[in-house]
Design goal:
Layout: H1 3-10, H2 14-22, E1 30-31, E2 37-38, H3 41-56, H4 60-67, H5 74-103, H6 117-134, H7 137-147, H8 151-154, H9 157-174, H10 184-200, H11 206-218, H12 220-227, H13 234-250
Antiparallel strand pairs: 1-2
Helix pairs in contact: 3-4, 5-6, 9-10, 10-13, 11-12, 11-13
Length: 251
């Protein structure tokens, strides 16, 4: 299949597929003399595995490391992912049942179906177990230092949503690492990040946004987290993009 056909089949953008190729995460088996990428069934199977891991919240660098591990067991990984999907299904089924009782005029006040606690706990357990078993030692230690004091300890749905949103935005930013921090696409992403923080946490005015940008490069914890999603120093790139954004907004 050509890159366009894969994009149509999966809904993944061509730019993202090119990026996966560039970082060595998903390289097409064949490249024609005219530089056309051709994907085989094995390539599509690997892409499916990548999407499974992305669904659970792994960074692209971590996925590349895991899939390249000589001890990686695809069947076992899928079984664990199935547990998460089953928990998600149970939650959806409970919500459907609750809505049906409302429609039928037999309301029974219940809030348990809205909780995502079981799904989040399974995701967290899955991530830590997979990194510990198939990931390299340094990667797992980095994961531990970043998440054990925050996401795992708090186990809050708010923080899980935050990490999911951050991952989405930072990986989107990584697609433009080879461009100027001042390009419109990058500046839109900075605005999206500012709006997300303002909506879900605190008012992120230009002063606060500028402070955060500096924090991303001066605090190693933030730098390591952000750089998980890029192919270079994504934290520094984001900081520069924020500087440009703030400068334009002030002028």
């Amino acid at each position: 299949m050509t890159v366009h056909e894969v994009a149509d089949l999966t809904g993944i953008t061509i730019r993202t597929l090119h990026y996966y190729d560039e970082i060595g995460l998903l390289k097409p088996t064949m490249v024609t003399d005219s530089k056309y990428r051709l994907y085989t069934d094995d390539d599509l199977n690997r892409l499916q595995e990548i999407l499974f891991f992305r669904e659970v919240g792994f960074a692209l660098k971590e996925i590349k490391s895991l899939l390249g591990s000589p001890n990686y067991d695809r069947t076992e990984a899928l079984k664990r992912h199935l547990d998460i999907l089953q928990a998600q299904k149970e939650r959806i089924d409970a919500l459907i049942s609750l809505v049906k009782t409302e429609i039928e005029g037999n309301p029974v006040p219940s809030f348990a179906p809205f909780s995502e606690t079981k799904v989040l706990e399974l995701k967290e357990k899955y991530r830590s177990e997979v990194l510990e078993r198939w990931g390299d030692t340094d990667s797992f230690k980095e994961y531990e230092s970043i998440f054990s004091s925050k996401s795992r300890r708090s186990q809050t749905e708010q923080m899980e949503r935050f990490y999911s949103a951050a991952q989405s935005i930072f990986e989107k930013l990584a697609l433009h690492e080879d461009e100027s921090p001042s390009c419109p696409a990058v500046q839109r992403i900075v605005k999206e990040w500012q709006d997300y923080i303002s909506t879900h946490f605190y008012k992120c005015d230009l002063q606060m946004l500028s402070y955060l940008g500096q924090l991303y490069v001066t605090d190693g914890r933030f730098s390591k987290y952000i750089n998980r999603f890029g192919n270079g120093d994504l934290a520094a790139f984001l900081n520069k993009a924020i500087e440009v954004f703030c400068s334009k907004e002030k002028s």
